């Protein structure tokens, strides 16, 4: 499984060139690079590589005698403009210590992913902005090469790289009648790298501040997260997997309660873990957000706000909306929830982006 990145599209992905750097600057066999890129056949990889670059992979390695590197460096393009500082600020305020580092220039995180071989692959990623190239500069530790297609898909999702900002801007231009520059061309929808992590964070964030939810998530990570050797100060763990939560013996509240997570939310987290591990819930590519929202609403402790927030960030649903959200209500005061819901009808199918605009307007 290569998370929706077919082998032809993967190799033909414009400026991304995901196969070049591992061939140039690592000692990995070409067949290992091909398999990591999602190809089932070395012959097909060689043929497409030759067609794309007019050069055989082995010839490239002979021509480019670079020093071996411990990371892969890729450029992921986007449609300009891109409000990078706004995206980085959003992620910074929610970064979980141990998992994520966000500073003025970059986003970095520890990663643990299960590959097609069933093995766990751990490492780190770091993302910076290349505005002159209309791209993000992605560094990936070489240890994640076997799951590189998954990493690429998740980074694209996290940073909303497939978005065409112009239709969004046109659809939400009317928001500027509410306040000057509420809708700015290039605003992106912050997604997620780990859908279970995002779902849990939504549950932890019910009726408390962003900072308080971040503290609870940090405690979960320090007690039950997956240890990751990154060599990067501040990056030490990945978020616990659904399976890790389900492995906790006894009542879930006996494990999460001492961390400050109340009983109802602890039980909701366990229900989410069970639903995702069994496939009852699907946040992956191809899933229909509206259907998953309805499934979420059947789980204990999940109401409309939580279900919509999960769909917005874990599934990149462009039309999620939460009329009762504190930030939305504050930005649109003194309107009632009903009036807000009616107002937002004009923002379909971009209400998730409208929500980000309303939150941004508060800062």
Automatic annotation (TrEMBL):
GO-annotated cellular components: cytoplasm; protein-DNA complex
Catalytically driven reaction(s): Hydrolysis of alkylated DNA, releasing 3-methyladenine, 3-methylguanine, 7-methylguanine and 7-methyladenine
EC number(s) stated in the UniProt entry for this protein: 3.2.2.21
Record-level GO BP terms: base-excision repair, AP site formation; DNA alkylation repair
Keywords, ordered alphabetically: DNA damage, DNA repair, Transcription, Transcription regulation
InterPro entries named in the record: AlkA_N, AlkA_N_sf, Alkylbase_DNA_Glycosylase/TA, DNA_glycosylase, HhH-GPD_domain, HhH_base_excis_C, Homeodomain-like_sf, HTH_AraC
Domain HTH araC/xylS-type span(s) in chain numbering: 23-63
One MF term in the entry's GO annotations: alkylated DNA binding
Class of the enzyme per the UniProt entry, highest EC level: hydrolase
Protein's name according to its UniProt entry: DNA-3-methyladenine glycosylase II
Lineage of source species: Bacteria, Pseudomonadati, Pseudomonadota, Betaproteobacteria, Burkholderiales
């Amino acid at each position: 499984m290569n998370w929706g990145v077919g082998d032809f599209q993967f190799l033909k992905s414009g400026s991304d060139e995901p196969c070049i750097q591992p061939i140039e600057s690592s000692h990995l066999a070409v067949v290992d690079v091909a398999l990591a890129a999602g190809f089932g056949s070395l012959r097909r990889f060689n043929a497409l590589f030759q067609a794309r670059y007019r050069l055989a992979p082995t010839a490239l390695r002979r021509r480019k005698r670079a020093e071996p590197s411990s990371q892969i460096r890729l450029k992921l393009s986007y449609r300009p403009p891109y409000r990078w500082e706004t995206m980085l600020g959003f992620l910074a305020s929610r970064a979980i210590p141990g998992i994520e580092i966000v500073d003025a220039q970059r986003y970095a995180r520890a990663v643990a992913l299960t590959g097609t071989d069933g093995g766990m692959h751990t490492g780190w990623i770091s993302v910076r902005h290349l505005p002159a190239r209309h791209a993000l500069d992605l560094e990936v530790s070489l240890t994640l090469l076997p799951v590189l297609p998954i990493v690429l898909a998740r980074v694209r999702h996290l940073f909303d790289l497939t978005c065409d900002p112009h239709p969004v801007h046109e659809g939400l231009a009317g928001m500027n009648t509410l306040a000057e520059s509420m809708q700015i061309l290039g605003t992106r929808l912050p997604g997620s790298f780990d859908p279970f992590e995002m779902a849990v964070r939504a549950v932890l964030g019910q009726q408390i501040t962003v900072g308080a939810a971040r503290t609870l998530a940090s405690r979960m990570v320090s007690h039950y997260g997956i240890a990751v050797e990154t060599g990067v100060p501040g990056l030490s763990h990945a978020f616990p997997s659904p399976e890790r939560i389900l492995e906790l013996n006894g009542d879930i509240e006996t494990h999460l309660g001492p961390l400050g997570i109340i009983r109802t939310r602890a039980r909701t987290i366990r229900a989410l873990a069970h639903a995702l591990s069994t496939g009852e819930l699907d946040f992956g590519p191809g899933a229909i957000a509206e259907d998953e929202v309805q499934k979420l609403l059947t789980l204990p402790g999940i109401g409309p706000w939580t279900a919509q927030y999960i769909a917005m960030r874990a599934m990149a649903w462009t039309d999620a909306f939460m009329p009762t959200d504190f930030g939305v209500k504050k930005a649109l005061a003194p309107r009632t929830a009903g009036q807000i819901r009616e107002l937002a009808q004009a923002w379909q199918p971009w209400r998730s982006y409208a929500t980000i605009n309303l939150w941004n307007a508060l800062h």
